[in-house]
Amino acid sequence: MTTSIAWFRRDLRLHDHPALTRAIAAGDGVVPLFVFDDGLLAGRWRSANRTWFLLGSVRELAHDLADRGAPLIVRVGDPRRIVPELAAAVGAGSVEVSRDLGPYGRARDRAVAAALDERGIAFHAHRGAVVHEPEQVRTGTGGPFSIYSPYRRAWDRLPLRAVLPAPEALAGRTDLDPGRLPDLADLGFAGPTADPAHLPMPGETAARARLERWLEADPDRLDGYAARRDLLGVEGTSRLSADLRFGLLSPLEVAARAIRPGEGARTFLGELAWRDFYAALLFERPDLIRSSFRREFEAMAWRHDPDGVAAWQAGRTGYPVVDAAMRQLEATGFMPNRARMVVASFLTKDLLVDYRVGEAWFMSHLVDGDPASNGGGWQWSASTGADAHPFFRVFEPTLQGERFDADGSYVRRWIPELADVPDRFLHRPWSMPPEVAAASGCRIGVDYPAPIVDHASARWRALAAFEAARRG
Question: Which of 48, 153, 385, 467 would bridge 189 by S-S if both were Cys, CB 3.0 to 4.6 A apart?
Answer without folding.
Answer: 48
